[in-house]
Specification:
With 261 residues, the chain is of the alpha+beta class. It contains 4 helices and 13 strands. Strands 1, 3, 4, 6, 9, 10, 11 and 13 form an 8-stranded antiparallel β-sheet that branches. Strands 2-5-12-7-8 form a 5-stranded antiparallel β-sheet, with no helix packed on it. The N terminus is likely disordered.
């Protein structure tokens, strides 16, 4: 509590102490005025769509800088599909036209072995996915590349949703071992590791799926699903990374990748 008035009859030592107390009170947090740009000086602050010095040293690079989609194009297109926009530093699928699989957004570049990290936020009852090693020799992207499933798996939206179709799953093939998903409208963090035949799905800091491509077990699993219709499914050694248009609104940010080996 600050002293508002000091009696003239107090002893000099007490006056000095009181002055010191008053001096300390003048800089209380309630009275201080924020300095413009102070947040930029906080080296501990998390920056969106940016790399840390440590990440740069490890070989990470951005696939989206928060301002444009120059590193992306549509599946089997040279331009960006109309429903994909840059909004407030995010890649935002607005679902105005409801392409449902014909407006997928993919990297211009192809990747073989890599580690991908990104954040995503989905609308209520929304459905989407991240596909990898996708090639353009099929009508749609899901006919060639496996999918890291993104979905609002609220039972009210999908009461009979199979475990291998929940968020973090290898869609249609491998169910997550734990539900690490945050609710619709909140940001989730995804990490996808693809190294040769080995694949790991991470969700909000937890490894939820791990599998091996190209093995007899893989081929048997594929044979029991709709993907058996496309013999080359999941067999590519290199391909595009795809953000899926599934007709639902979704946002992505902090998309970064580093190539392995």
């Amino acid at each position: 509590m600050c002293l508002k008035r000091i009696s003239r009859t107090v002893m000099p030592g007490v006056v000095l102490a009181a002055v010191l107390i008053l001096s300390g009170c003048r800089e209380s947090p309630e009275d201080s005025v924020p300095v413009a740009g102070a947040a930029e000086l906080d080296t501990g602050a998390v920056r969106t769509n940016a790399l840390t010095a440590h990440e740069e040293a490890e070989g990470w690079r951005l696939l989206f800088d928060g301002t444009d989609l120059s590193q992306w194009r549509g599946y089997r297109m040279e331009t960006v599909p109309p429903d994909w926009k840059v909004t407030n530093g995010t890649i935002h699928f607005q679902s105005e036209h409801g392409g449902e699989g014909y407006g997928d957004l993919q990297t211009r570049e192809q990747f073989a072995d890599f580690e991908l990290m990104l954040e995503w936020r989905i609308s209520e009852c929304g459905n989407s996915g991240i596909l990898y090693r996708v090639t353009e020799d099929a009508e749609q992207e899901f006919m060639t590349g496996p999918e890291y499933q993104l979905i609002d798996a609220d039972p009210e939206c999908y009461p009979d949703l199979a475990a291998e179709r929940t968020a973090g799953a290898n869609y249609g093939l491998h169910a997550p071992v734990v539900d690490a998903t945050k609710p619709a409208g909140e940001w989730n963090s995804t990490r996808l590791v693809v190294s040769g035949a080995h694949v790991e799905h991470w969700l909000n800091g937890q490894k939820v799926v791990e599998y091996e491509l190209w093995t007899d077990e893989w081929k048997e699993k594929v044979a029991g699903t709709k993907f058996a219709e496309w013999p080359g499914y999941g067999m590519n050694k290199k391909g595009h990374i795809v953000l899926q248009d599934h007709g639902a609104e979704i946002w992505f940010r902090n998309i970064k990748i580093r190539e392995l080996n």
